Predict the structure.
Amino acid sequence: MEYFLLLVIGCTAGLLTGLIGASGVMVVVPALVILGYPASGAIGASLFIDTIASLVVAWTYYQSGNLNLKHGLWIALGSVVGAQVGSLVSPFIPDTGLSGAFGIFLLVSAAIFWFRGRKGIVPAAGGDQEGSRPPRLLGALRANIVISGLSLGFFVGVISGLLGAGGGVMILLILVFVMQYRLHEGIGTSTLIMAVTAASGAAGHALSSDLPLKAALLGAAGTLIGGRLAAVFANRVGEKLLSRVVAGVFVVLAVVMLAVR
């Protein structure tokens, strides 16, 4: 029975990653803790499962031409270092209500994506809309891709190692609203970056003996199915509809996180 549950947990996490490019940590970690795994081990397994889910999803988006590492490469490099730092610090950080704060963050993000889908705001790939002038801060970030990518990636990596998440939501927001990627392109690229970040964090947990292989491998097997199905669906729908789907999923996740904090 436990094996079946682990497969279902992985499949659910894969669906989440394929639809919105987000980590399955909000599904995997609580579920594994309920099944009796220690929190540190659940986080390690979550990072391993995120790695497999992200690779499957990223490959599917790549097949549809929705992968662009022009700016994302630097975020990926920064996130690798940050994930190692977060993994080392994770055992010493108590639960201080971060889930509630992240839940509110998701609600704000949901509102932004819903507005984006309703208005049909679809920027050109990797650039601003013609004639638009970005705020000074965004302009500075886009003008210094290497520095901004490494810095933002490092921050995402630290959060990933601390919470057992691949950082997909934050990477997606950076790519779509800072780097001006199309949503499909943002999800595809963020999942590939998340695979690198999650793999780095999982390696850190494995070195600390905080990686239960049975849970990680069975969850990863389930995520192959869920991730592929969700990614195929996401690549077949339009930008406006996908924005609304992302917003809706963010709302559900936020409500869950606020309810269990």
User: Anything to note?
Assistant: The CA atoms of residues 29 and 65 lie 32 Å apart. DSSP finds eleven helices and no strands in the chain. The mean pLDDT is 77.
